[in-house]
Structures are given as structure tokens and as C-alpha cells.
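User: quick one, fold this
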Amino acid sequence: MARGGKLAAAALAAVLLGACASIQEAIRLPYVSSFSDVPPGETLPQGWEKWTLSRLKKATQYQLVDYSGRTVVKAHANASASGLVHPIRVDAKTYPLLTWQWKVTDLIATADNTQKHAEDSPVRVVVTFDGDSEKLPLADRLFSDNARLLSGQPLPYATLMYIWENRAPAGTVIPNRHTSRVRMLVAESGRDKVGTWQEVTRNVYEDYKRVFGEEPGPITAIGIMTDTDNTGANVHAYYGDIVFRRVAPPRHVYASD
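Assistant:
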């Protein structure tokens, strides 16, 4: 995430919304386009777009590559921060299960997302939500107005980031220091799973209620980001397909006669 300046910690959310606004409404899909549906190369699947945090920051490099017969995204960050974003319109209560795949080749040794000067993550999955901004506290509305001056767009109503942390245990919620509308949730922590593909499933509906203390509005975008701009590290990571699903109905078990 960006170093210095009161608005820097919220730059990701602001740019996410800006990127969404720049993509035609006609491709605001009701599902997340799969990386595995396209061949390796430079062309992203429909709906996905590159975005940058700042013109002053070096961009993380993203490329569609073949990994054991399937197309995935390879991210390479070297003192950089940028991502990919996909506008979407999903009811979080109807499709609460968010499943994604990621692989981290190494952690960022000096990263610590509880500290502003070390707030980097080898992988992030970011979800933004709609809502009634007029009901927010004055401080959050003023912060959103200031973010609009920075990015040209107001902040999303709420932004939830799933991250891989070095120290904070899985399940930890890390607040933003400047606004209550951006929160990080630790989905994975430590080195135990470094170097292997992980499939993560989160109930984003329940996570949102836990983190923000209210019912979520519609999901408006999904994003991925590998960032090392604060620590200056050089890391590689991979992302697989991202899917929203319904909760499966309970299975009935019948006792045999």
C-alpha cells in the first residue's frame, strides 16, 4: 500500500472504484470471469482490467501463464503496487461463498499489516460493496470526499481485503487507521502453506457482518493485488479462478430399515 499521506492507506479502495467506473456497464458481469478459460498471454478475460494505485508508483506485473495445464495469473512485485479489478454485481446473501486459489512462493520478511510503514502482502483478494453512504458517520463521509479529490472517485461504501499475513493469526481483522469503511481480514498466516496451491473459501456474507457489524449491500467489484511498495521486497505469487457460490442445501440422511 502507498507510503505517507493520510489518504494513502485507502488508495486501493479509491482506485478500485475508479477502475470500475472506467469499464463499460455492459460488461459488469453477474459472475467472475475465469482466468482458466483463456489461453496464456497478455489478454485478460472479459471483465478484468489492470489498475494502478498511483502514477508515482511502480506497477506490479501480472501475466497469464500456463501452470500444469491451466491458465493462472502470475504476479511479480518489486517495490511495486498495482492490481487487477473485475466489476461485478452480486447479492452477498444469495451467493455468500467466495472461493479462490492462490499460491505464495515466499513471504515478505519485513511485512506487517498492522504497521503502516510495512503494510504489504504477497497476495490480496479485495471485495467492494455498495451501500448508503449518507448514513455513515461524518468522519467517514469527509474521508470519502477527500479520497474523491485524490482519485476522482469516492470510496466504495465498504471494502474488505483478504490477505496473507506473516504474524497476525488467521481470522484477525486489521482496521484502517483513517476510515471504518476499509478492513483487512487475515485469510492465511505464516509459512506452513508457502509454496503450495491453496484453495480458500470464505463466507463473505458472514465475514462482512462480523467486520462491519451490519448487513452487506451488493458486491460491486472483486480485485487481486500483490504489493511490496512499503517494504521494497521482490516476490512472486499466483492466483487461480475466483467464484461466488450459493450455500449448498443440507443433505438429508435417512436411517436404513
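User: anything notable?
Assistant: Residues 138-151 form the longest helix (14 residues).
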